Amino acid sequence: MIKKFLAVSGLALTSLAASADIGASWIDGLVNTGAGLAGGVVDTHYAFSSVSGSATGTGGFGVVTGVVRPVPAWVANTATSAWLTPSANAAASYDRTSSGLYKWTLTFDLTGFDAASASFAGRWAADDSGYIHLNGNLIETGVRKSNWTDFSASQGFVAGVNTLDFFVTNLPHPVSSPTGLRVEFLSSVVSAPQPPVPHLPAPVLAVPEPSSSVMILAGLLVVGAVARRRIC
User: Fold this and answer.
1) Apex CA 166: angle with CA 161 and CA 167, to 5°?
2) Could you read off the pLDDT of 118-129 as tens digits, one per residue?
3) pTM, whole model, 2 decimals?
4) Of 78, 98, 134, 174, which residue is least crowded by CB atoms under 10 Å?
C-alpha cells in the first residue's frame, strides 16, 4: 500500500513539473509591415481605412513600397520591414488643404492562451503623426517619419481576437503630402493556461493482515495474564 501511495504521489509531482514546463511563445499574428513581401504587393495583414481624408487605400489595405526614393525623409526599408502606403505610388499626395486621419488595423487571436500573460514591444514610424490603440485603449502617442518611436503593452489584452489600431494623421501640404506606416515588433510573449493541479489522494494507512492481528491479540492476552499473576 505504501509503495502504491508513493507511486501515485510521484505521478502527481511529474504532472506538476510538466505543467511548469509549458513555456511562453511569440504572439502569432504580430507581423511587421511588408514582412516577406515585395514592393507593390498588397499587405493583407494591415487593414486600411480613412477616418477623414482623401486616401482610400487599395482594396481596404496598404501596399508595400519599394525603395523609398520619392520621400527620402522616411526611415529606409529593410528586409525586416517596409513602409505601407495607401497606393502603389509611395509619393502620391493626399490631403492638400486639410489634415487626413487614417487607421491601420492589425488583429491577432489569443484564444487558448492566457491573455493576462501577454505583452509585446516594438517600434513604429509614420507620416506625419499618430497614436496607437490596443482594443480601444491608448498605449502610445507620438511618432516620427525619419526615426523610430518605441511602443509596448503589457495589459489590456483579451482572451480572443485583439485589435491593434495605428492612427496616422497626414498634415496638409499644397504640393506634396504623402502618408504611410512602418511597424516592427521586437518582442512578444504569451503563455498557455496552466492545467488544473491534480488532486493528491489522502495517504492510506496499511491494514494489518489477519495473521498479524491474531499475533497482536495473543501478545495482549499474555501481557494481561502476567499482570494478573503479579497482582495476586
Assistant:
1) 130
2) 999 999 999 999
3) 0.75
4) 174
